[in-house]
Amino acid sequence: QQWQIGKLSLSTAGFSYAGSELIRWSDTIGCHCERSRSVCSLTVFAYPRHRRSGKRERRVIRWQIGGFQDAKECQLHLLAALKSVGNSAGAPPVEPDGPCPSVTWPKPCLILLNPRSGSGKAYDLFLRHVNPILADADFPYQLVVTRSLDHVRELSTSVPIDSVSGIVIVSGDGLVYEVVNSLLNRPDAEAAVRSIPIGVVPAGSGNAVVSSLLNYLGEFHPDNLIQHAALSLVKHRPDSLINLDVGVIQTPTNTDRPLHCVLSVTWGLIADVDAESERFRILGGARFGLLLTKKCLAGIKRYRGRLSYLPADPANQLIDSLPNFDQPVPTSWTVLERDFYTIGALLMSHLAEDFFPVTDWQPDDGLWRLFCVYPCSRSQFLRGFTGAAKGRLEGDSIEVIRARAFRLEPLTPGGHMMIDGEPMSYGPVQGWVMPGKVRVLMSGKCQDMPAGDK
Ligand SMILES: Nc1ncnc2c1ncn2[C@@H]1O[C@H](COP(=O)(O)OP(=O)(O)OP(=O)(O)O)[C@@H](O)[C@H]1O
Questions:
Q1: Are residue 346 and residue 362 in the same domain, yes or no?
Q2: Same domain for 399 and 306?
Q3: How far apart are CA 13 and CA 4, in angstroms?
């Protein structure tokens, strides 16, 4: 369908002015409209993809459109048509004689910014890359630069559920974990996770959560991760947020108050690299590569362990509880007792911006991916690990097992165990999944985008 208003052409795919290039609705995040008598001045903010690099770049389009009999009408229709796209990526514009869409974002988002995340430049990154996008989209928010982890927990636990339209985290994966756990530990946890979706703007060193989500949406661009995340945030549609799996993690001492995981539980090499590279935070994401190289040269430590899991075949339905640690796992489970270099029980496709061993990921498929690396020669390890980082699994030394639930019992004493990149107690651990438990302020996969954008 096509509508013509003066030299402005509106269609279900996008709009153009006086025959200029088509700007897709899904690339537009906001607009301002001013009216004087019968003339409308329109400014539209769009972030179309660069043809070759694939990066999104800001475009400001300004027009004056005159000659309307009823200027108020003109303003309302254009504003409604253009504004609707900010929150409804790909929805067709309102019909020129149709009703204006209801006002979006009635409540502000609470933005929690950790000034110490990554290499310590989160505030700078926010001002440079995120704030301009929020302003273009007219996105209402309240920014809090957090003082400490306790401050983050206190705010996420106490924010009234009807006062915000979500909590946006400007930090790394660690703070996403903290906010999700705070929400799920509230007395009104069920209402809180339903009413307070979370948003993520990457400013940490790993940024695996946001990398996985953007990759799923076809919006992953490593050079411009923060900008693409901010665009996904402002383009979210309140009626089609992403539902994200949450893992319920038990240890022998916390069965009545489990931890909640959105990214991973790791043990062996990956956990050691994560924990021991903490002191190189200033390097940002490069800290992982540095430690990995060091460990590889020194010889990777073998860990003996017992990994039990419920395979993800269709016969095994979702489960919502696990046997106590003093009970054996059910006979339908597979048990592997052997040496490992590492195990990562993953709920995401990425373990870091540049490491994505899982290629078939859905945010709410209710599955763990058990990323296992077995002892092998150094060259086999390097080949396998670099392949896995790019989603290619080759050789016998690396495997990704899809499971509904797992139990991991380390048999080698001493080592690190990490949950979502944060340290947890070393010892037996088991987990199951609550499918799609939290909601994310990003639009769901582009099923209803115009054909050209799919
Ligand atoms: N002012 C602060 N506000 C919030 N958290 C803080 C603050 N200062 C230090 N922290 C610590 O930052 C940690 C969270 O950092 P986060 O994991 O989000 O970033 P990162 O480690 O750089 O990124 P990634 O997890 O992606 O590697 C918390 O565990 C907390 O202890």
A1: yes
A2: yes
A3: 14
Domain span including residue 383: 247-435
Ligand 1: centre distance to CA 408 (Å): 26
Are 282 and 363 found together in one domain?
A: yes
Pairing outcome for strands 14-17 and 8-11: antiparallel
Which atom, in ligand 1's list, is nearest to the CA of 176?
18
> pLDDT tens digit string along 280-321?
666 656 667 777 777 777 788 999 999 999 999 877 677 888
Task: Report d(CA 116, CA 175) in Å as an integer.
Answer: 11
Residue 381 inside a domain? The answer is: yes
pTM attached to this predicted model: 0.89
Q: Is residue 18 part of a domain?
A: yes
Q: Can you tell me the ipTM of this complex?
A: 0.96
Which of 111, 113, 114, 154 should be mutated for ligand 1, with most atoms under 8 A from CB? Answer: 114
Residues 238 and 116 in one domain: yes
* Torsion sign, CA atoms 231, 237, 240, 243: positive
Altogether, the residues listed in the chain come to a count of 454
Helix (H, G, I), strand (E, B) or coil at 62: strand
Distance CA 74, CA 71 (A): 5
Q: How far is it, in rounded angstroms, from Cα 141 to Cα 71?
A: 31
Residue 441 falls inside a structural domain? no
Q: List pocket residues of ligand 1, CB cut-off 6 Å.
A: 114-118, 146-149, 152, 171-175, 204-207, 421-422
Residue located nearest, by CA, to atom 18 of ligand 1? 172
Residue 393 and residue 257 share a domain: yes
The H or E element containing residue 200 is strand 198-202
